[in-house]
UniProtKB/TrEMBL annotation:
This is Phosphomevalonate kinase. It comes from Anopheles sinensis. PANTHER family: PHOSPHOMEVALONATE KINASE. Substrate binds at residue 169. It is found in: Cytoplasm, Cytosol. GO terms for biological process: cholesterol biosynthetic process; isopentenyl diphosphate biosynthetic process, mevalonate pathway.
Length: 193
C-alpha cells in the first residue's frame, strides 16, 4: 500500500482533561472518515507497553483508571526513547495516515511540533491549543499527580505561543461554536472543503 501524504495536519494540544479527544472526535465527525482520520502519538507508546507488560491495549487507549495506573511509567519510558530519537513515536503514528486530513489529538512537546513541521511543512500544518480552567478539569475527574502533571509531557508547550487557534473549553462556549472555529482551519485550505 502506498503511503498517503496528508494535505492538512491539525495538531491538538492541551492539559489532561481539557477535552482534546472529545474535540478531535467531534471534528472528525464533522469532516467525515472518508476525508479525515485521527492519529495518536501515544498509541505506539501504549501498544509497546501493552505488549511488553502483557496489558490490555484497549484499556490503555481508553480514558480509564487502568491507563492512569501506568501513565507515569509510560511517560518515563517514552522520555528515554525520545532522548535517543525525538520523532520515534510521531513517525510510528504517521505510518497509519491514510486520509487527506490528519488530526493528531495528543501533541505534548515542542519536539512533536518540530517533527510535524519538518515532515509536512508549515503550509500543511495547523496547531490548536485547548485551554480549560483547573476547576473544570477537576470536575472532569482530573487531580494533580506529581511526576505526571509537572513534567515535560504536560508542561513543555505551556510557553509555546505560535498556535493557529486557541479554544477555551470551559463549558461556556457551545461545542458547535468551537467546531465552527476548528472548521475554519480546514476551510482555509481551499481544495479540502
Amino acid at each position: 500500500m502506498e503511503k498517503t501524504t496528508p494535505k492538512l495536519v491539525i495538531l491538538f494540544s492541551g492539559k489532561r482533561k481539557c477535552g482534546k479527544d472529545f474535540l478531535s472526535e467531534a471534528l472528525l465527525n464533522k469532516l467525515g472518515t472518508d476525508r479525515a482520520q485521527i492519529i495518536r502519538i501515544s498509541e505506539p507508546i501504549k501498544r509497546h507497553w501493552a505488549e511488553s507488560m502483557g496489558l490490555d491495549l484497549a484499556e490503555l487507549l481508553s480514558d480509564s483508571a487502568y491507563k492512569e495506573h501506568y501513565r507515569k511509567q509510560m511517560i518515563e519510558w517514552s522520555d528515554d526513547r525520545r532522548r535517543e530519537d525525538y520523532g520515534v513515536f510521531c513517525r510510528s503514528a504517521c505510518s497509519t495516515i491514510e486520509r487527506d486530513i490528519c488530526i493528531v489529538s495528543d501533541v505534548r512537546r515542542k519536539t512533536d511540533i518540530r517533527f510535524f513541521l519538518e515532515t509536512f511543512g508549515p503550509e500543511r500544518l495547523r496547531t490548536v491549543r485547548i485551554e480549560t480552567s483547573q476547576d473544570v478539569r477537576v470536575s472532569r475527574g482530573w487531580r494533580f499527580e506529581s511526576g505526571i502533571d509537572d513534567v515535560q509531557s504536560e508542561c513543555d508547550l505551556d510557553d509555546y505561543d505560535r498556535w493557529d487557534l486557541r479554544l477555551l473549553n470551559d463549558g461556556d462556549v457551545e461545542v458547535g461554536e468551537m467546531l465552527k472555529r476548528l472548521y475554519s482551519i480546514v476551510e482555509g485550505m481551499g481544495s479540502l472543503t
